[in-house]
Amino acid sequence: MTRKTTSSSADPLVCDFTGGTVLHRFKYGGGRGQSLPKAVGMRGGKTPKVVDATAGLGRDAFLLASLGAEVTLIERSLEMFNLLNDGISRARDAGGDVAEVIARMTLIHGDAKDLLPDLSPEVVLVDPMHPPRKKSALVKNEMRQIREIVGTDEDSLELMQVALSTASNRVVLKWPLRADPMDGIGPCSHQILGKSTRYDVFMIT
Ligand SMILES: C[S@@+](CC[C@H](N)C(=O)[O-])C[C@H]1O[C@@H](n2cnc3c(N)ncnc32)[C@H](O)[C@@H]1O
Question: Ligand 1 center to residue 128 CA distance, Å?
Answer without folding.
Answer: 5
